[in-house]
Fold this protein.
Amino acid sequence: MKNFILFLSLLFLSVIILSSGCKKKTESTPCDGKGTLCIENKLDSTITITLKPSQSTFDLQKDYMQCSDLTGDQTYTINVSGNGIDRDTTITVLTCDKKLLIIQ
């Protein structure tokens, strides 16, 4: 009888140990899969910034900066237009990136 109780105790302990180590772990995306792009205007006038494919457009005054949280691991086309200026550039924003683009 003593051996039977010892056997059941070891079996119960083994089941608890094995079941606690088999939990599924959920992996979370670092930085929620986003990156940050800041654009600073060093020109003498207000400019208009268009980000594609996010389709966001905003005006940026002289000596100001605006930051946008964008989907990471994606390439963006940035159009800068204003008084006598019309430029396009492409930039890749990775997950957890913090990039600064200075327009001068």
Remarks:
- The helical segments are 2-20.
